[in-house]
Amino acid sequence: MNDGGLENRKEHGKSQKQSKSSKFNSKSDDFALAIAKVAVAQVCESVGFQSFQNSALQTLSDIIVQYIYSVGKTANINANLAGRVEANVLDVFQGLEELGSGLGFAGASDADRCVVNSGIVRDIVHYVGDADDIQFAYDVPQFPVVKEWKETGSFWEKGEEPPGEHIPNWLPVFPDPETYAAQSSEGNETMSVLNGEKSELASFETKMERSLLNLQQRFACNGNEGGSSRDGGDAGRAREAAESNPYLAAPLHFGEKEVEVSPVVLPVKLSNEVALRNIVSENCIVGNHVSVLETFAPAIEAMKSGFHDSENRQKKVLHNQRPMVHFKIETGKKSLGSAPNLNSQKKDLEKIASWFGNDNEKYDKKRRAEKILKEPMENCQELAQL
Amino acid sequence: MNHNPQSDDGKHDDDTALSDFLASLMEYTPTIPDELVEHYLAKSGVQCPDVRLIRLVAVATQKFVAEVASDALQHCKARQASVVKDKRDKQQKDKRLILTMEDLSKSLREYGVNVKHQEYFADSPSTGIDPASRDE
Protein backbone atom coordinates (compact mmCIF):
# COMPACT_ATOMS: atom_id res chain seq x y z
CA MET A 1 0.00 0.00 0.00
CA ASN A 2 1.43 3.35 -0.94
CA ASP A 3 -0.58 5.63 1.31
CA GLY A 4 0.82 9.03 1.87
CA GLY A 5 -1.35 10.02 4.78
CA LEU A 6 -0.66 9.05 8.31
CA GLU A 7 -4.26 9.27 9.43
CA ASN A 8 -5.46 6.51 7.23
CA ARG A 9 -2.67 4.22 8.02
CA LYS A 10 -3.58 3.42 11.55
CA GLU A 11 -7.12 2.31 10.79
CA HIS A 12 -5.99 0.65 7.65
CA GLY A 13 -3.34 -1.28 9.47
CA LYS A 14 -5.76 -2.30 12.14
CA SER A 15 -8.27 -3.58 9.67
CA GLN A 16 -5.71 -5.40 7.65
CA LYS A 17 -4.03 -7.11 10.51
CA GLN A 18 -2.84 -10.51 9.43
CA SER A 19 -1.68 -13.28 11.68
CA LYS A 20 1.99 -13.02 12.40
CA SER A 21 4.34 -15.73 13.33
CA SER A 22 5.85 -13.72 16.14
CA LYS A 23 5.31 -14.67 19.72
CA PHE A 24 3.12 -11.64 20.19
CA ASN A 25 0.42 -13.08 18.03
CA SER A 26 -2.40 -12.41 20.42
CA LYS A 27 -5.50 -10.32 20.19
CA SER A 28 -4.71 -8.48 23.37
CA ASP A 29 -1.68 -6.91 21.74
CA ASP A 30 -3.40 -5.32 18.79
CA PHE A 31 -3.63 -1.89 20.29
CA ALA A 32 0.03 -1.71 21.20
CA LEU A 33 1.06 -2.99 17.79
CA ALA A 34 -1.04 -0.38 16.08
CA ILE A 35 0.59 2.35 18.12
CA ALA A 36 3.99 0.92 17.29
CA LYS A 37 3.11 1.03 13.61
CA VAL A 38 2.25 4.69 13.78
CA ALA A 39 5.43 5.49 15.67
CA VAL A 40 7.57 3.55 13.22
CA ALA A 41 5.89 5.27 10.32
CA GLN A 42 6.63 8.65 11.82
CA VAL A 43 10.27 7.82 12.34
CA CYS A 44 10.63 6.48 8.83
CA GLU A 45 9.01 9.59 7.50
CA SER A 46 11.56 11.72 9.29
CA VAL A 47 14.34 9.61 7.79
CA GLY A 48 13.06 10.36 4.33
CA PHE A 49 10.54 7.80 3.21
CA GLN A 50 7.36 9.07 1.69
CA SER A 51 5.25 5.94 1.72
CA PHE A 52 5.38 2.42 2.97
CA GLN A 53 4.38 -1.01 1.99
CA ASN A 54 1.94 -2.31 4.52
CA SER A 55 3.78 -5.55 5.11
CA ALA A 56 7.08 -3.74 5.52
CA LEU A 57 5.52 -1.46 8.11
CA GLN A 58 4.05 -4.36 9.99
CA THR A 59 7.32 -6.23 9.95
CA LEU A 60 9.28 -3.28 11.21
CA SER A 61 6.86 -2.50 14.00
CA ASP A 62 6.88 -6.14 15.01
CA ILE A 63 10.64 -6.02 15.13
CA ILE A 64 10.82 -2.96 17.33
CA VAL A 65 8.35 -4.54 19.70
CA GLN A 66 10.67 -7.51 19.97
CA TYR A 67 13.56 -5.10 20.38
CA ILE A 68 11.96 -3.38 23.34
CA TYR A 69 11.03 -6.71 24.77
CA SER A 70 14.55 -8.10 24.54
CA VAL A 71 16.15 -4.95 25.91
CA GLY A 72 13.82 -5.18 28.85
CA LYS A 73 14.50 -8.83 29.35
CA THR A 74 18.25 -8.42 29.27
CA ALA A 75 18.08 -5.47 31.62
CA ASN A 76 15.98 -7.49 34.00
CA ILE A 77 18.40 -10.40 33.91
CA ASN A 78 21.33 -8.11 34.57
CA ALA A 79 19.54 -6.55 37.50
CA ASN A 80 18.70 -9.95 38.94
CA LEU A 81 22.28 -11.06 38.53
CA ALA A 82 23.35 -8.08 40.56
CA GLY A 83 20.86 -8.98 43.25
CA ARG A 84 18.37 -6.26 42.48
CA VAL A 85 14.73 -6.34 41.58
CA GLU A 86 14.47 -3.04 39.75
CA ALA A 87 16.46 -2.40 36.62
CA ASN A 88 19.12 0.25 36.58
CA VAL A 89 20.29 2.55 33.86
CA LEU A 90 23.48 0.54 33.77
CA ASP A 91 21.48 -2.63 33.27
CA VAL A 92 19.75 -1.06 30.33
CA PHE A 93 23.06 0.01 28.84
CA GLN A 94 24.36 -3.50 29.16
CA GLY A 95 21.26 -4.81 27.48
CA LEU A 96 21.71 -2.38 24.63
CA GLU A 97 25.30 -3.45 24.31
CA GLU A 98 24.27 -7.04 24.02
CA LEU A 99 21.83 -6.22 21.29
CA GLY A 100 24.32 -4.10 19.47
CA SER A 101 27.19 -6.48 19.81
CA GLY A 102 26.29 -8.20 16.57
CA LEU A 103 26.93 -5.07 14.64
CA GLY A 104 29.76 -3.91 16.84
CA PHE A 105 30.29 -0.62 18.57
CA ALA A 106 33.30 1.44 19.51
CA GLY A 107 35.13 0.03 22.47
CA ALA A 108 33.51 -3.36 22.36
CA SER A 109 36.79 -5.19 22.53
CA ASP A 110 38.11 -3.36 25.57
CA ALA A 111 38.29 -5.74 28.45
CA ASP A 112 38.11 -3.26 31.28
CA ARG A 113 35.65 -0.74 30.01
CA CYS A 114 33.00 0.98 31.99
CA VAL A 115 29.51 0.57 30.71
CA VAL A 116 28.86 4.26 30.85
CA ASN A 117 31.73 4.96 28.54
CA SER A 118 30.75 2.51 25.86
CA GLY A 119 30.22 3.41 22.28
CA ILE A 120 26.56 2.59 22.51
CA VAL A 121 25.92 5.31 25.02
CA ARG A 122 27.89 7.80 23.03
CA ASP A 123 25.91 6.97 19.94
CA ILE A 124 22.70 7.51 21.76
CA VAL A 125 23.86 10.79 23.17
CA HIS A 126 24.78 11.93 19.69
CA TYR A 127 21.49 10.80 18.35
CA VAL A 128 19.58 12.72 20.97
CA GLY A 129 21.60 15.75 20.13
CA ASP A 130 21.08 15.51 16.40
CA ALA A 131 17.64 14.13 15.87
CA ASP A 132 14.52 16.25 15.50
CA ASP A 133 11.93 16.15 18.15
CA ILE A 134 8.89 14.55 16.57
CA GLN A 135 5.80 14.27 18.65
CA PHE A 136 3.83 11.09 18.47
CA ALA A 137 0.76 11.63 16.35
CA TYR A 138 -1.86 10.52 18.82
CA ASP A 139 -2.59 10.88 22.47
CA VAL A 140 -1.91 7.54 24.02
CA PRO A 141 -3.77 6.65 27.19
CA GLN A 142 -2.31 4.51 29.92
CA PHE A 143 -2.77 0.93 28.95
CA PRO A 144 -3.56 -1.80 29.65
CA VAL A 145 -6.47 -0.52 31.62
CA VAL A 146 -6.79 -2.33 34.89
CA LYS A 147 -10.32 -3.19 35.82
CA GLU A 148 -11.30 -2.58 39.39
CA TRP A 149 -11.92 -5.84 41.12
CA LYS A 150 -14.52 -5.79 43.79
CA GLU A 151 -13.57 -8.14 46.53
CA THR A 152 -16.14 -10.32 48.17
CA GLY A 153 -15.57 -10.01 51.87
CA SER A 154 -14.60 -12.83 54.12
CA PHE A 155 -16.95 -14.51 56.51
CA TRP A 156 -15.45 -12.60 59.36
CA GLU A 157 -15.80 -9.28 57.59
CA LYS A 158 -19.40 -9.86 56.76
CA GLY A 159 -20.19 -11.17 60.18
CA GLU A 160 -21.55 -14.40 58.85
CA GLU A 161 -21.00 -17.82 60.24
CA PRO A 162 -19.30 -20.21 57.86
CA PRO A 163 -21.65 -23.09 57.07
CA GLY A 164 -19.31 -25.69 58.46
CA GLU A 165 -16.75 -26.05 61.16
CA HIS A 166 -14.10 -27.01 58.68
CA ILE A 167 -14.37 -23.67 56.92
CA PRO A 168 -12.27 -20.92 58.51
CA ASN A 169 -13.83 -17.53 58.70
CA TRP A 170 -11.12 -15.68 56.87
CA LEU A 171 -12.16 -17.28 53.61
CA PRO A 172 -14.45 -15.30 51.30
CA VAL A 173 -18.17 -15.87 51.63
CA PHE A 174 -19.93 -18.39 49.49
CA PRO A 175 -22.13 -17.08 46.70
CA ASP A 176 -25.83 -17.07 47.45
CA PRO A 177 -27.31 -20.53 47.34
CA GLU A 178 -29.94 -19.55 44.82
CA THR A 179 -27.28 -19.05 42.25
CA TYR A 180 -26.23 -22.65 42.23
CA ALA A 181 -29.17 -24.59 43.66
CA ALA A 182 -32.65 -25.30 42.34
CA GLN A 183 -35.16 -22.83 43.57
CA SER A 184 -38.38 -24.42 44.75
CA SER A 185 -39.79 -27.81 45.63
CA GLU A 186 -42.54 -27.75 43.01
CA GLY A 187 -40.06 -26.96 40.37
CA ASN A 188 -37.88 -29.70 41.67
CA GLU A 189 -40.44 -32.35 41.07
CA THR A 190 -40.92 -31.70 37.42
CA MET A 191 -37.26 -31.13 36.97
CA SER A 192 -36.28 -34.39 38.55
CA VAL A 193 -38.63 -36.24 36.26
CA LEU A 194 -37.15 -34.57 33.27
CA ASN A 195 -33.63 -34.95 34.46
CA GLY A 196 -33.98 -38.65 34.50
CA GLU A 197 -34.69 -38.67 30.83
CA LYS A 198 -31.66 -36.82 29.63
CA SER A 199 -27.93 -37.19 29.42
CA GLU A 200 -25.59 -35.83 32.04
CA LEU A 201 -24.32 -33.04 29.89
CA ALA A 202 -27.74 -31.73 29.15
CA SER A 203 -28.70 -31.70 32.78
CA PHE A 204 -25.53 -29.91 33.67
CA GLU A 205 -26.34 -27.31 31.10
CA THR A 206 -29.77 -26.87 32.43
CA LYS A 207 -28.51 -26.45 35.93
CA MET A 208 -26.18 -23.80 34.77
CA GLU A 209 -28.95 -22.13 32.88
CA ARG A 210 -31.19 -22.27 35.88
CA SER A 211 -28.60 -20.86 38.18
CA LEU A 212 -27.88 -18.10 35.74
CA LEU A 213 -31.54 -17.55 35.51
CA ASN A 214 -31.91 -17.32 39.25
CA LEU A 215 -28.96 -15.07 39.59
CA GLN A 216 -30.21 -12.70 37.00
CA GLN A 217 -33.67 -12.96 38.34
CA ARG A 218 -32.49 -11.69 41.62
CA PHE A 219 -30.42 -8.99 40.06
CA ALA A 220 -33.33 -7.95 37.96
CA CYS A 221 -35.57 -7.92 40.95
CA ASN A 222 -33.16 -5.72 42.76
CA GLY A 223 -32.92 -3.46 39.83
CA ASN A 224 -36.51 -3.32 38.74
CA GLU A 225 -38.44 -2.07 41.65
CA GLY A 226 -41.53 -0.67 40.29
CA GLY A 227 -42.86 -3.71 38.64
CA SER A 228 -45.42 -2.95 36.03
CA SER A 229 -44.79 0.74 36.02
CA ARG A 230 -41.55 0.02 34.27
CA ASP A 231 -43.32 -1.75 31.51
CA GLY A 232 -44.03 1.38 29.61
CA GLY A 233 -40.51 2.64 29.90
CA ASP A 234 -39.05 -0.67 28.95
CA ALA A 235 -41.37 -1.02 26.07
CA GLY A 236 -40.47 2.36 24.73
CA ARG A 237 -36.80 1.76 25.13
CA ALA A 238 -37.13 -1.65 23.67
CA ARG A 239 -38.80 -0.32 20.62
CA GLU A 240 -36.05 2.18 20.18
CA ALA A 241 -33.40 -0.46 20.60
CA ALA A 242 -35.05 -2.64 18.07
CA GLU A 243 -35.38 0.16 15.61
CA SER A 244 -31.88 1.46 15.88
CA ASN A 245 -28.70 -0.43 15.30
CA PRO A 246 -28.26 -2.78 18.25
CA TYR A 247 -24.57 -2.04 18.32
CA LEU A 248 -25.23 1.63 18.75
CA ALA A 249 -27.65 1.20 21.61
CA ALA A 250 -26.75 3.04 24.77
CA PRO A 251 -24.74 1.05 27.28
CA LEU A 252 -26.67 -0.62 30.04
CA HIS A 253 -26.48 0.10 33.70
CA PHE A 254 -26.05 -2.64 36.19
CA GLY A 255 -29.16 -4.71 36.56
CA GLU A 256 -30.68 -3.76 33.28
CA LYS A 257 -31.27 -6.24 30.58
CA GLU A 258 -30.40 -5.65 27.00
CA VAL A 259 -33.45 -7.43 25.88
CA GLU A 260 -36.33 -5.41 27.09
CA VAL A 261 -37.36 -6.24 23.62
CA SER A 262 -37.91 -9.64 25.05
CA PRO A 263 -41.50 -9.23 26.12
CA VAL A 264 -42.44 -9.42 22.48
CA VAL A 265 -40.82 -12.60 21.61
CA LEU A 266 -40.62 -14.07 25.03
CA PRO A 267 -43.68 -16.29 25.27
CA VAL A 268 -43.31 -17.95 21.92
CA LYS A 269 -39.59 -18.12 21.93
CA LEU A 270 -38.45 -20.81 24.27
CA SER A 271 -35.58 -22.30 22.44
CA ASN A 272 -33.18 -19.53 23.07
CA GLU A 273 -30.84 -18.68 25.84
CA VAL A 274 -31.94 -15.12 25.52
CA ALA A 275 -35.41 -16.23 26.34
CA LEU A 276 -34.17 -17.56 29.61
CA ARG A 277 -32.65 -14.28 30.50
CA ASN A 278 -35.67 -12.41 29.37
CA ILE A 279 -37.91 -14.64 31.31
CA VAL A 280 -36.18 -13.29 34.29
CA SER A 281 -37.12 -9.72 33.70
CA GLU A 282 -40.53 -10.79 32.61
CA ASN A 283 -41.00 -12.66 35.83
CA CYS A 284 -40.07 -9.77 37.92
CA ILE A 285 -42.29 -7.45 36.09
CA VAL A 286 -45.23 -9.75 36.26
CA GLY A 287 -44.49 -10.90 39.75
CA ASN A 288 -44.84 -14.64 39.77
CA HIS A 289 -41.37 -16.04 39.95
CA VAL A 290 -41.80 -19.62 40.74
CA SER A 291 -44.73 -20.50 38.58
CA VAL A 292 -43.25 -19.07 35.45
CA LEU A 293 -39.94 -20.65 36.20
CA GLU A 294 -41.42 -24.05 36.64
CA THR A 295 -43.54 -23.74 33.56
CA PHE A 296 -40.55 -22.77 31.57
CA ALA A 297 -38.26 -25.35 33.07
CA PRO A 298 -39.77 -28.25 31.19
CA ALA A 299 -39.64 -26.23 28.02
CA ILE A 300 -36.05 -25.30 28.67
CA GLU A 301 -35.07 -28.87 29.15
CA ALA A 302 -37.13 -29.99 26.26
CA MET A 303 -35.39 -27.56 24.03
CA LYS A 304 -32.10 -28.97 24.94
CA SER A 305 -33.02 -32.57 24.38
CA GLY A 306 -34.83 -32.14 21.15
CA PHE A 307 -37.47 -30.24 19.45
CA HIS A 308 -39.99 -32.90 18.59
CA ASP A 309 -40.18 -34.57 21.92
CA SER A 310 -41.53 -31.53 23.58
CA GLU A 311 -44.02 -30.24 21.14
CA ASN A 312 -46.90 -30.86 23.40
CA ARG A 313 -45.28 -29.28 26.32
CA GLN A 314 -44.40 -26.36 24.21
CA LYS A 315 -47.93 -25.99 23.16
CA LYS A 316 -49.02 -25.99 26.72
CA VAL A 317 -46.47 -23.48 27.71
CA LEU A 318 -47.27 -21.33 24.76
CA HIS A 319 -50.83 -21.43 25.78
CA ASN A 320 -50.06 -20.35 29.29
CA GLN A 321 -47.92 -17.51 28.18
CA ARG A 322 -50.25 -16.09 25.58
CA PRO A 323 -51.83 -13.49 27.81
CA MET A 324 -48.46 -11.89 28.45
CA VAL A 325 -47.91 -11.07 24.85
CA HIS A 326 -50.55 -8.51 24.42
CA PHE A 327 -48.24 -5.67 23.61
CA LYS A 328 -45.44 -5.55 21.12
CA ILE A 329 -47.01 -6.69 17.93
CA GLU A 330 -45.44 -3.71 16.21
CA THR A 331 -41.99 -4.77 17.15
CA GLY A 332 -42.73 -8.14 15.67
CA LYS A 333 -43.66 -6.49 12.41
CA LYS A 334 -40.49 -4.50 12.41
CA SER A 335 -38.46 -7.61 12.93
CA LEU A 336 -40.06 -9.07 9.87
CA GLY A 337 -38.30 -6.41 7.95
CA SER A 338 -34.95 -7.68 9.05
CA ALA A 339 -33.26 -10.52 7.31
CA PRO A 340 -35.19 -13.63 8.30
CA ASN A 341 -33.22 -16.60 9.30
CA LEU A 342 -35.19 -19.67 8.54
CA ASN A 343 -32.86 -22.17 10.04
CA SER A 344 -34.20 -25.09 11.86
CA GLN A 345 -33.28 -26.52 15.20
CA LYS A 346 -29.76 -27.13 14.04
CA LYS A 347 -29.07 -23.49 14.47
CA ASP A 348 -30.49 -23.58 17.94
CA LEU A 349 -28.23 -26.41 18.87
CA GLU A 350 -25.33 -24.52 17.46
CA LYS A 351 -26.28 -21.58 19.56
CA ILE A 352 -26.51 -23.74 22.60
CA ALA A 353 -23.13 -25.23 21.88
CA SER A 354 -21.60 -21.86 21.47
CA TRP A 355 -22.95 -20.52 24.73
CA PHE A 356 -20.28 -22.13 26.76
CA GLY A 357 -17.48 -21.24 24.49
CA ASN A 358 -17.99 -17.54 24.40
CA ASP A 359 -15.92 -15.55 26.73
CA ASN A 360 -16.35 -12.31 25.01
CA GLU A 361 -19.16 -10.31 26.52
CA LYS A 362 -19.46 -8.03 23.58
CA TYR A 363 -19.80 -10.96 21.28
CA ASP A 364 -22.51 -12.27 23.54
CA LYS A 365 -24.43 -9.07 23.35
CA LYS A 366 -24.09 -9.05 19.61
CA ARG A 367 -25.39 -12.55 19.33
CA ARG A 368 -28.25 -11.77 21.62
CA ALA A 369 -29.19 -8.82 19.55
CA GLU A 370 -29.09 -10.90 16.43
CA LYS A 371 -31.18 -13.59 18.00
CA ILE A 372 -33.75 -11.11 19.12
CA LEU A 373 -34.12 -9.72 15.68
CA LYS A 374 -34.32 -13.10 14.07
CA GLU A 375 -36.50 -14.82 16.61
CA PRO A 376 -39.94 -13.71 15.48
CA MET A 377 -39.34 -15.18 12.08
CA GLU A 378 -38.27 -18.45 13.55
CA ASN A 379 -41.24 -18.50 15.81
CA CYS A 380 -43.60 -17.91 12.98
CA GLN A 381 -42.07 -20.88 11.35
CA GLU A 382 -42.23 -22.98 14.46
CA LEU A 383 -45.83 -22.12 14.98
CA ALA A 384 -46.52 -23.08 11.43
CA GLN A 385 -44.79 -26.36 11.99
CA LEU A 386 -46.76 -27.00 15.13
CA MET B 1 33.49 0.25 43.29
CA ASN B 2 37.23 0.93 43.63
CA HIS B 3 38.34 3.82 45.72
CA ASN B 4 41.29 4.70 43.56
CA PRO B 5 41.56 8.49 43.62
CA GLN B 6 42.68 8.68 40.01
CA SER B 7 39.76 6.80 38.61
CA ASP B 8 37.39 8.63 40.91
CA ASP B 9 37.71 11.77 38.84
CA GLY B 10 37.05 9.77 35.73
CA LYS B 11 34.03 8.27 37.35
CA HIS B 12 32.83 11.61 38.45
CA ASP B 13 33.02 12.87 34.90
CA ASP B 14 31.18 9.85 33.67
CA ASP B 15 28.53 10.25 36.28
CA THR B 16 27.98 13.87 35.51
CA ALA B 17 27.89 13.11 31.83
CA LEU B 18 25.37 10.41 32.47
CA SER B 19 23.18 12.52 34.68
CA ASP B 20 23.35 15.36 32.20
CA PHE B 21 22.35 13.00 29.49
CA LEU B 22 19.46 11.66 31.49
CA ALA B 23 18.32 15.18 32.22
CA SER B 24 18.46 16.02 28.55
CA LEU B 25 16.36 12.95 27.90
CA MET B 26 13.50 14.52 29.75
CA GLU B 27 13.53 17.47 27.41
CA TYR B 28 13.66 15.38 24.31
CA THR B 29 10.39 13.60 23.64
CA PRO B 30 10.98 10.44 21.69
CA THR B 31 8.61 9.65 18.89
CA ILE B 32 7.84 6.28 20.39
CA PRO B 33 5.37 7.01 23.18
CA ASP B 34 6.28 6.25 26.75
CA GLU B 35 3.17 4.20 27.36
CA LEU B 36 4.04 1.77 24.62
CA VAL B 37 7.56 1.25 25.88
CA GLU B 38 6.34 0.93 29.43
CA HIS B 39 3.86 -1.70 28.38
CA TYR B 40 6.42 -3.89 26.71
CA LEU B 41 8.99 -3.39 29.42
CA ALA B 42 6.42 -4.44 31.95
CA LYS B 43 5.68 -7.45 29.81
CA SER B 44 9.32 -8.45 29.89
CA GLY B 45 9.51 -8.07 33.64
CA VAL B 46 11.24 -4.75 34.12
CA GLN B 47 10.00 -2.85 37.12
CA CYS B 48 11.18 0.67 36.64
CA PRO B 49 9.46 3.56 38.32
CA ASP B 50 11.94 5.95 36.70
CA VAL B 51 10.64 7.73 33.63
CA ARG B 52 14.12 8.46 32.40
CA LEU B 53 14.84 4.79 31.97
CA ILE B 54 11.75 4.40 29.83
CA ARG B 55 12.77 7.40 27.79
CA LEU B 56 16.19 5.86 27.38
CA VAL B 57 14.78 2.66 25.96
CA ALA B 58 12.45 4.65 23.75
CA VAL B 59 15.30 6.71 22.39
CA ALA B 60 17.42 3.63 21.82
CA THR B 61 14.56 1.99 19.93
CA GLN B 62 14.00 5.09 17.89
CA LYS B 63 17.68 5.18 17.02
CA PHE B 64 17.48 1.56 15.95
CA VAL B 65 14.49 2.22 13.72
CA ALA B 66 16.17 5.26 12.26
CA GLU B 67 19.27 3.25 11.43
CA VAL B 68 17.33 0.47 9.80
CA ALA B 69 15.22 2.94 7.90
CA SER B 70 18.19 4.90 6.67
CA ASP B 71 19.88 1.72 5.48
CA ALA B 72 16.72 0.76 3.66
CA LEU B 73 16.57 4.24 2.18
CA GLN B 74 20.06 3.87 0.85
CA HIS B 75 19.16 0.56 -0.71
CA CYS B 76 16.09 2.11 -2.25
CA LYS B 77 18.01 5.03 -3.68
CA ALA B 78 20.73 2.77 -4.98
CA ARG B 79 18.16 0.68 -6.77
CA GLN B 80 16.49 3.71 -8.25
CA ALA B 81 19.78 5.13 -9.42
CA SER B 82 20.68 1.95 -11.20
CA VAL B 83 17.28 1.51 -12.75
CA VAL B 84 16.74 5.05 -13.96
CA LYS B 85 16.66 5.37 -17.71
CA ASP B 86 15.64 8.11 -20.04
CA LYS B 87 11.97 7.50 -19.48
CA ARG B 88 9.97 10.24 -17.84
CA ASP B 89 8.00 8.04 -15.49
CA LYS B 90 11.09 6.69 -13.83
CA GLN B 91 12.23 10.19 -13.07
CA GLN B 92 8.86 10.95 -11.66
CA LYS B 93 9.08 7.80 -9.60
CA ASP B 94 12.35 9.01 -8.21
CA LYS B 95 10.51 11.35 -5.96
CA ARG B 96 8.51 8.58 -4.36
CA LEU B 97 10.57 6.70 -1.85
CA ILE B 98 8.73 3.65 -0.74
CA LEU B 99 9.73 1.38 2.10
CA THR B 100 9.53 -2.02 0.51
CA MET B 101 9.99 -5.42 2.01
CA GLU B 102 12.96 -6.02 -0.19
CA ASP B 103 14.93 -3.04 1.05
CA LEU B 104 13.87 -3.73 4.57
CA SER B 105 15.01 -7.32 4.52
CA LYS B 106 18.36 -6.30 3.08
CA SER B 107 19.00 -3.75 5.77
CA LEU B 108 17.71 -5.98 8.54
CA ARG B 109 20.01 -8.78 7.49
CA GLU B 110 22.94 -6.73 8.70
CA TYR B 111 21.34 -6.55 12.11
CA GLY B 112 20.91 -10.27 12.28
CA VAL B 113 17.20 -10.28 11.58
CA ASN B 114 16.32 -12.54 8.70
CA VAL B 115 13.12 -11.47 7.06
CA LYS B 116 12.07 -13.41 4.04
CA HIS B 117 9.34 -12.03 1.90
CA GLN B 118 7.34 -13.99 -0.57
CA GLU B 119 8.12 -13.04 -4.11
CA TYR B 120 4.65 -13.65 -5.29
CA PHE B 121 1.59 -15.64 -4.53
CA ALA B 122 0.40 -17.64 -7.47
CA ASP B 123 -3.20 -16.68 -7.06
CA SER B 124 -2.69 -12.94 -7.14
CA PRO B 125 -3.35 -10.95 -10.30
CA SER B 126 -0.10 -9.03 -9.89
CA THR B 127 2.04 -12.13 -10.05
CA GLY B 128 5.52 -11.67 -11.38
CA ILE B 129 5.43 -7.87 -11.58
CA ASP B 130 8.47 -5.93 -10.46
CA PRO B 131 8.20 -5.65 -6.68
CA ALA B 132 8.99 -1.96 -6.59
CA SER B 133 6.00 -1.04 -8.66
CA ARG B 134 3.65 -3.62 -7.32
CA ASP B 135 0.80 -2.46 -5.17
CA GLU B 136 0.18 -4.62 -2.19
From TrEMBL, chain A:
It comes from the Eukaryota. InterPro entries: BTP, Histone-fold, TAF8, TFIID_su8_C. Its main location: nucleus. Residues 29-105 form the Bromodomain associated domain. Residues 1-24 are annotated as: Disordered. Residues 1-14 have a biased composition (Basic and acidic residues). This is Transcription initiation factor TFIID subunit 8. The lineage of its organism: Eukaryota, Viridiplantae, Streptophyta, Embryophyta, Tracheophyta. The gene is LOC110426677.
Automatic annotation (TrEMBL), chain B:
One of its GO terms (cellular component) is SAGA complex. InterPro entries: TAF10. The keyword Transcription applies. It comes from the Eukaryota. Keywords: Nucleus, Transcription, Transcription regulation. GO terms for biological process: transcription initiation at RNA polymerase II promoter. One of its GO terms (molecular function) is RNA polymerase II general transcription initiation factor activity. Belongs to the TAF10 family. This is Transcription initiation factor TFIID subunit 10. It comes from Herrania umbratica. The lineage of its organism: Eukaryota, Viridiplantae, Streptophyta, Embryophyta, Tracheophyta.
